[in-house]
Amino acid sequence: MSLPTGFLDELRSRTTLSHVVGRKVTWDNRKSNQAKGDFWAPCPFHQEKTASFHVDDRKGFYYCFGCHAKGDAISFLRESENMGFMEAIELLAREAGMQMPAQDPKAAERADRRTELAKVMEEAVRHYRLQLKTAAGAAARDYLMRRKLGEAAQERFEIGFAPDQRQELFRALQGKGIGSDLIVDAGLCARPDDGGQPYDRFRGRIIYPIRDPRGRCIALGGRAMDPNARAKYLNSPETDLFDKGRSLYNHGPAREAAGRGQPLIVAEGYMDVIALVGAFFEAAVAPLGTAITEEQLRLLWRIHHEPLIMLDGDTAGIRAATRLVDLALPLIEAGQGLRFVILPEGMDPDDLLRMQGREAMAKLVAEAQPMVNLLWRRETEGKVLDSPERRAALDKSLRAQIGRIADPSIRAHYGEEVRRLRAELFGQARALRGAPARRDGRWRAAPAQPLPQTRASLLGPAAGPEVEDYLREAMILAICMSHPACAERFESQLEAVEMRNPVHDRLRIAILGAAGEEAGAFHEKVAEVAGADLEKLMGLAQVQIAPPVRNTADTDAAALCLAEELAKLEARRGVATEVEEAMEDLTGLADEGLTWRLTQAAEARHRAERSKLDDDSDLGEDRAALSAQLQGLIDRAVWEKKKS
């Protein structure tokens, strides 16, 4: 819809920005000068204790000196509540007493009809809420209490009850002067085939109102009280208000919670959403009785760039997940994907929260799996891949699936991950087929030979110091990018460390320039200076699988890893410098001093390696190789001395 010239200017002039923002923040009265329209508060867009968020009512703009968020009343609603542009304008116009520009007559007529239907739906919600409190609703109240839904939850979700009577709601609404056509068109009642009086669609059911993002009731959901009912759950039919495939339960509140930084969780039903919200996972939604549609998927991405799909761990749940993977593959883009939370088999979110508590749910949410894992699981689970023909069939199927991805960059990353999973699977198979060896009285499979993919990787061609230094530099930078607080904490060490790779040195300088900023601003600044270099760094397979990069929540562990990497890099280079200088002196006759220097260098290296790693660490072989190399230098020095 196009807006006439001057409409937005008039809307902004009638809107007091501090009133809009004031619903989300608490003003700092010591710093604010409200008489002059000058307001300060902690920023609603990032976590802080100081009042760095400034609102200027005279200019109608806000600005945060911490995260650099800025805009007017329209952008504030869009950012803080995840509203669309026209939705924000309609809300502000309504509050300012302005009429939205007229539409064409037919569109205006449809809008008026929807407004009438919405009023009928609100009357039905009020009626069902009252019925829950009557004697007829006693069994429904008992059921809700057994499900741990107290009065606060019932009030929050406006839960009601439809008595098991054929025309109870119809008569009540007619008594309020509402015509039968409106009641039927709202989906509350249906006309019998014989042409008699309409009858209630919802009878003997607990009622859950379904609202659109603007808060209008557009449909109802009903859960049968009778366990032998034909349908356990029943939704309103599609109407001028309600399109089942384009609606989500708890859409508006979830969108607002996601705007505050909560993860968007997509559960299966009303009770799952209510249980999650009660456990403070407030950005929870559910599709309405069907599998997620493409329209609903796009709705979810407008709320959050990476929704978490929560499904039961049984066969049906996994099947639903893989169907969604098929739907999502052609639609995913950079920064727009899905992750999956697979619950223990036989448990839904409500069961898990009641039996194991919020911590167990939070752990599952934190461990949500990427979509590629579900794709791989579907293509390999239960299959015996013991022949070239079967493996070729797997490759063909995977290529076909990955080929459906439109974004070439994502397609390439999917290919890399599938190749890694394939190498892991077939590498294990080869190890098991190898000749067994008996050790310590037990039969063990022979170690697998290096795969072609491994030999072709960065670590494969050489075990020289250049490769190790390159990866260690990359790890230092990647930890700083994953944990901006570490960049500030280790700023002096980062200033002193030498990055011998030019790309890494440019990134180091960019990180130092952004150190001390909030996470969002930190990433933006580094990306501005070194966008392509940063993408290359974070795309390294060795970086992606590193625990401090994968787990962005544990900054303390990341700081320990960063300190270790810096220490190892310094130790390795110190040893290398000492050995080079000593080797120059070995061109003549060796003496005790040179031999002592080489011995000290080897011991220094060993101490640095032992500081964090035990004998079973993955650097044990590297340490042994370096020890042998240094000992060889020492032996040659002694031999030259004896020869002299």
UniProtKB/TrEMBL annotation:
The keyword Transferase applies. It holds the Pfam family DNAG_N. One of its GO terms (biological process) is DNA replication, synthesis of primer. Keywords: DNA replication, DNA-binding, DNA-directed RNA polymerase, Magnesium, Metal-binding, Nucleotidyltransferase, Primosome, Transcription, Transferase, Zinc, Zinc-finger. A zinc finger (CHC2-type) spans 43-67. GO terms for cellular component: cytoplasm; DNA-directed RNA polymerase complex; primosome complex. Binds 1 zinc ion per monomer. InterPro entries: DNA_primase_core_N_sf, DNA_primase_DnaG, DNA_primase_Znf_CHC2, DnaG_bac, DNAG_N, DnaG_primase, TOPRIM_DnaG_bac, TOPRIM_dom. SUPFAM superfamilies: DNA primase core, Zinc beta-ribbon. Residues 262-346 form the Toprim domain. It comes from the Bacteria. Contains an N-terminal zinc-binding domain, a central core domain that contains the primase activity, and a C-terminal DnaB-binding domain. Belongs to the DnaG primase family. RNA polymerase that catalyzes the synthesis of short RNA molecules used as primers for DNA polymerase during DNA replication. This is DNA primase. It comes from Albidovulum aquaemixtae. The gene is dnaG.
